[in-house]
Design goal:
single chain
Length: about 150
């Protein structure tokens, strides 16, 4: 079965349409539809404005998926009472989860910085346009237009 059909039996077309980044980082034992739903929800909420934001969103979602995977593994170890037997692995898993969270948070900061920078650039551009095109056309209250004085 192809990657788009695994687990749910239905193609996950949204992933193939928006994914210029290769296949999603979903293991065979994981739910591809759940990953697709997570990616779609984040895209719907964030509404990426350009390709950079789409890249950062994909990074953030992939890293969030990774964090979920590590936490699920940790939970399984706890539920199966294997924690004491695998304490070294648990510590490694914890470090991997923290590293994924740090990388995800860095991607989120980049989106915030990008949008802030965009907003500042837009404000500066609007101010410049206003200075250049709008302010010279404002007429002081006590000034009479030449056309009006010729009519009187």
């Amino acid at each position: 079965m192809s990657q788009d059909h695994r687990r749910s039996g239905r193609p996950v077309k949204a992933l193939s349409r928006i994914s210029i980044f290769g296949p999603p980082p979903v293991l065979k034992s994981e739910d591809l539809a759940a990953y697709g739903a997570l990616l779609a929800h984040v895209n719907k909420c964030v509404k990426p404005k350009d390709i950079l934001e789409k890249i950062w969103i994909r990074d953030a979602v992939d890293l969030t998926w990774e964090v979920i995977r590590w936490r699920r593994l940790m939970t399984n170890l706890l539920e199966d009472n294997l924690l004491s037997d695998c304490i070294d692995n648990v510590e490694r898993i914890d470090r991997l989860a923290m590293a994924a969270e740090a990388r995800r948070n860095a991607a989120l900061r980049e989106i915030q910085r990008h949008r802030s920078s965009f907003a500042q650039n837009l404000r500066r551009t609007i101010d410049d346009v206003e200075d250049e095109f709008v302010k010279p056309t404002i007429i002081p209250e006590n000034r009479v237009l030449h056309d009006q004085s010729a009519q009187n």
